[in-house]
Design a protein that fits this description.
Helix content is 21%, strand content 37%. It contains 3 helices and 13 strands.
Length: 186
């Protein structure tokens, strides 16, 4: 088999390690430490992570289709870990609707009023911080891209935006497809 076909295009690319980021590998567990935090993930048996000359590389242990396909996945996960501990990730949500609002109860909890008969108290997971502005915009910060995405999706699920007036919790850059309301049937 030709050497160029052993990895996916993404899996071949090395991950540059910025100043202050350290990658350590023990078995299948990869630990990335940087100024914004520390992230550890367990990679599959089909790949091996090597650190050489300020770059982290994904090397294949299995040359089958599964190994080649997962090399790109694990390279993307490693890249997200490096970016997370060096720069961090951010997700922004906004609350639209009369009477809908969010307030920080303390540093770890957000209190939502979203039109239900009861308020919703959401406790942020470890590794995620939040800010709530006066105009009902929520900004989440984390070093872990997977964790911040899951947290944003959970918050959005409390009241998904509806298609008629657009009320609910949505991502700032999300576009809601609007529907026409009822018209009189004369």
């Amino acid at each position: 088999m030709n050497e160029t076909f052993k990895k996916s295009r993404i899996g071949k690319a090395p991950v540059a390690l910025p100043q202050g980021v350290v990658v350590t590998v023990s078995g299948n567990t990869v630990n990335v430490k940087g100024p914004k935090g520390n992230i550890s993930k367990t990679f599959g048996d089909c790949v091996e992570v090597k650190v050489e000359n300020g770059h982290a590389l994904i090397d294949l242990k299995q040359l089958d289709t599964d190994g080649r396909a997962k090399s790109g996945l694990y390279r993307a996960l490693l890249h997200n870990m490096v970016v997370g501990v060096s720069e961090g990730f951010e997700k922004k949500l906004e609350i639209i609707g009369t009477g809908y609002r969010a307030d920080m109860k303390n540093a770890r909890e957000i209190l939502f009023a979203l039109g239900y008969s009861h308020p919703i108290l959401y406790e942020l997971p470890d590794g995620v911080t939040a800010e709530v502005s006066k105009d009902n915009k929520i900004t989440l910060h984390s070093a872990d891209k997977e964790l911040i995405g899951q947290t944003a999706a959970e918050i959005r699920s409390f009241r998904k935006p509806e298609p008629y007036k657009g009320k609910g919790v949505k991502y700032v850059d999300e576009v809601i497809q609007r529907k026409a309301g009822k018209t009189s049937g004369k």
